[in-house]
Design brief:
The protein has one domain (about 20-270): Beta Barrel (Acetoacetate decarboxylase-like), CATH 2.40.400.10. It is built from 3 helices and 15 strands. The protein has helices spanning about 35-40, 100-110, 255-265; strands at about 20-30, 45-50, 55-65, 70-85, 85-95, 115-120, 120-125, 130-135, 140-150, 170, 175-185, 185-195, 200-215, 230-240, 245-250. The strands form 2 sheets. Strands 1, 2, 3, 4, 5, 6, 7, 8, 9, 10, 13 and 14 form a 12-stranded mixed β-sheet that branches. The chain is globular, with a radius of gyration of 19 Å.
Length: about 280
């Protein structure tokens, strides 16, 4: 094993090579929200994919075999959005905990532009036909989901991953609308939107009814996205990986960039980075 500080040059090309989040165990969940609030929380020029009845997305999983770190827990809250011909999840925020969380945060935020932070607790729990998933940060349960397996909340809702098995998995397309930018002494520059092409291979999927509670903390205002209708959830085992990251939009208007950054930074940095008085002692 190489024990020196310097990474051998021949290994540099292996950084995050074929990065994948394998053997995920947990939930995906879909709900509708208020159209006006969805538009307010999306950075311009993103729009809700369904302007009249926007759909939102939650996932909470234990990533048991990531290729680039020890296992870790991860969860996120997002709005299904559109930019031109591209549709994907715009994440208001993602939280990570566990042994591999630091590498998951840094690699996802720096290389892909995902709105990631560390949190103190993520729970993925199931006993028989009931389950619970939650994300806790700053002592607040930002997401609390209670589940009962068997059917969706909304009758008639269906997904292509139903019936997936280890022998016959289902691969579904999926992507995110991610923002990347550069910090400098003159401020923020080179803001752009990338389409993060990230399919999922599903080995198991069980429909579930869900009760969802979203709550805000001082640093993470997840409760500002109202839940108007829970569509349903699925308890799953899956693999997820990245195919491509393609630039689809570049900000050139100063006002538009400023408006976008005021919505982007809260998912990546806490309020203490904007204030002078911010001490906590315990």
């Amino acid at each position: 094993m190489y024990t020196g500080y310097r990474i051998p040059e021949e290994e540099l090309s292996n950084f995050m090579k074929d990065g994948a989040m394998n053997d995920q165990y947990g939930i995906q969940l879909f709900f509708n929200t208020d159209p006006e609030r969805a538009r307010e929380l999306l950075p311009p020029p993103l729009e809700p994919a369904d302007p009249s009845n926007p759909m939102c997305y939650i996932y909470v999983v234990n990533i048991r075999q990531p290729t680039f770190s020890p296992w870790y827990m991860e969860g996120g809250l997002g709005i299904i959005a559109r930019l031109g011909d591209y549709e994907g999840v715009y994440f208001l925020g993602l939280m990570l905990s566990g042994p591999g969380a630091l590498m998951g945060v840094f690699s996802g935020r720096e290389s892909s532009g995902l709105a990631k932070k560390l949190c103190e607790r993520i729970l993925v729990e199931r006993t028989g036909d009931v389950g619970r998933c939650l994300i806790r940060r700053d002592g607040v349960d930002l997401v609390d989901v209670k589940l009962k397996m068997g059917s969706y909340n909304q009758k008639g809702f269906g997904t292509p991953q139903e019936g997936s098995t280890r022998e016959k998995p289902t691969t579904i397309g999926g992507g995110c609308l991610n923002h990347k930018y550069e910090f400098g002494w003159g401020g923020i520059s080179n803001l752009r939107v990338n389409y993060y092409d990230s399919p999922t291979r599903v080995y198991s999927w069980e429909p579930a009814e869900a009760e969802v509670t979203l709550t805000s903390s001082f640093n993470d205002r997840w409760g500002e996205l109202p839940v108007t209708n829970v569509i349903g959830a699925g308890w799953m085992v899956s693999d997820n990986w990245v195919v491509d990251q393609k630039k689809i939009y570049e900000y050139t208007d100063e006002q538009e960039m400023t408006q976008a950054m005021s919505l982007l930074l809260p998912g990546r940095y806490d309020r203490c980075t904007f204030l002078k008085d911010h001490q906590t002692y315990e």
